[in-house]
Amino acid sequence: MPTFTTLTIEQDASSPRFARLILNRPERLNAINEEMPGEIKAAVEWANCNEAVHVIVVEGAGKGFCGGYDLVSFAESEIEHPCQQEAYPWDPMVDYAQMKKYTECFMALWRSAKPTIAKVHGAAVAGGSDIALCCDLLVVADDARIGYMPTRVWGCPTTAMWTYRVGPMRAKQLMFTGDVLSGKEAADWGLATVAVPLAELEARTRQLAERIAGVPRSHLAMHKLVVNQAMLSMGLEQTQMFATLFDGITRHNPEGLWFRRYAQQEGFKAAVEWRDGGRPIPEADEARSLLRAMEASRGRR
Fold first, then answer.
1. What is the pTM of this model?
2. Which end of the chain is more exposed for a tag (fewer CB within 10 A), N or C?
3. What is the DSSP string of the chain?
4. pLDDT tens across 18-38, in order?
């Protein structure tokens, strides 16, 4: 079995026709660090090369699926990250190249010749929702939470999967508000394949994986290609290009820079409470004025 630092993958002990890819940073709510995207891609490649495996189940260790990018360290730190945040002048194409690489790693789940099932409990939010939505199917706990809160400020979902999974009107609702769906709501909207009580999540996921695993690999690959090709014809790759570029802009425009400075000054928790609590986000001249005040304060310290 391959060895990784952020996840594990192996064939299920009782059902070797499916592999379990487990995001394994439970102390950080399986938050995405710089190593995780590449390890997801490598784990998917391993499963695709294993002839016994027909299905890949993706899940999270500990309290939830994935809490998104490990932004406490990124937002509060002084380092030039993510993607040369503090570099001047900011180079949007350097930013795009890095974030596009992460996106392509997550999309390994979507491009995998073998079906992928996200087994979601707890939170699958922000970048964690990108991982979940790159899977073909989602089996979720009723009380799971899925959404992309950073659309309010400092983020754009680079995989751009929301429109293709829930349709334009509901995608706009989620992107405009940054609201989070419960597992039950996700199933009602057609985002999740099924939502069940947490106690039944493992059994329901196993039942679906084993049902799929009985189909020949070649048939699964062909059927998946047919559906994926329809999404590509609808412009998925072009949409991801815009989304990934816009993600960089949201982190470097006045509003995004205000958010990061506020996180550095007051802590990431306080910044998130402002972002998600419904308070108006400072913008344009107001954001620039606050930025100047915070820069002056940093200079005095």
1. 0.95
2. C
3. ----SSEEEEE-SS-TTEEEEEE--GGGTT-B-SSHHHHHHHHHHHHHH-TT--EEEEEESTT-SB--B-HHHHHHS-SSTTTSTT-SS--HHHHHHHHHHHHHHHTHHHH-SS-EEEEE-SEEETHHHHHHHTSSEEEEETT-EEE-GGGGSS---TT--HHHHH-HHHHHHHHHH--EEEHHHHHHTTSSSEEE-GGGHHHHHHHHHHHHHTS-HHHHHHHHHHHHHHHHHTTHHHHHHHHHHHHHHHHHSHHHHHHHHHHHHH-HHHHHHHHHTTPPPP-HHHHHHHHHHHHHHHHH-
4. 999 999 999 999 999 999 999
